[in-house]
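Here is a protein:
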Amino acid sequence: GELAVTDDAGDYRIGNVGYGRFLAAVDASHLPSPAHRVEARKGERIRIDLQVGPPGLPARGLVTDTMGQPIEGALVQLGPDAFEDAAPFRTYPPVRLRTDAEGRFTGGVFHPGQEITVWAGGSGWSPVELAVSGREVTSGDWAIQLPRSCVIEGKVRMVDGSEPGHTHLMVEMADLASNKPDWLRKETVSDPDGSWRMEDAP
């Protein structure tokens, strides 16, 4: 998306924002502003004033496996479900963070009174989604546990029961009940005899 930085008076200017996109203001120590839907047409110039929320605290936490060992490089998303087509930002943009070598993450700005949707996952780990209070998210004393992902294998057969031969067929896994992005989908290609194996399946 397009980014702009405000001047000393708080004014900003941003271009190349298409119709139907969402605009929000983010500050390092305050909650983001509610997202504003842009309804300007091509060539039109409009003014949109944004107001950031009250002061907040950064999210701090730990991602581990089920044995309590830290997981490096896990992705943690905190905030509204930005993958829903109908409402990209319900109230404010989501925050996406990566865990460090000790499995810890920190970032974003949240209020203790908020209810926050948290999604966490990573390569080799099954993702989890949970609702957490802002007080817990900003305490630094909470941890997310990720179970190991599984391995799925099988064979593909044609409609007459024969092997596909040299045709490499695509086998894809996706959460059809949600609108998660493509990087949460899993796919593999079968061997000529129809055998396939999918590692890192959620």
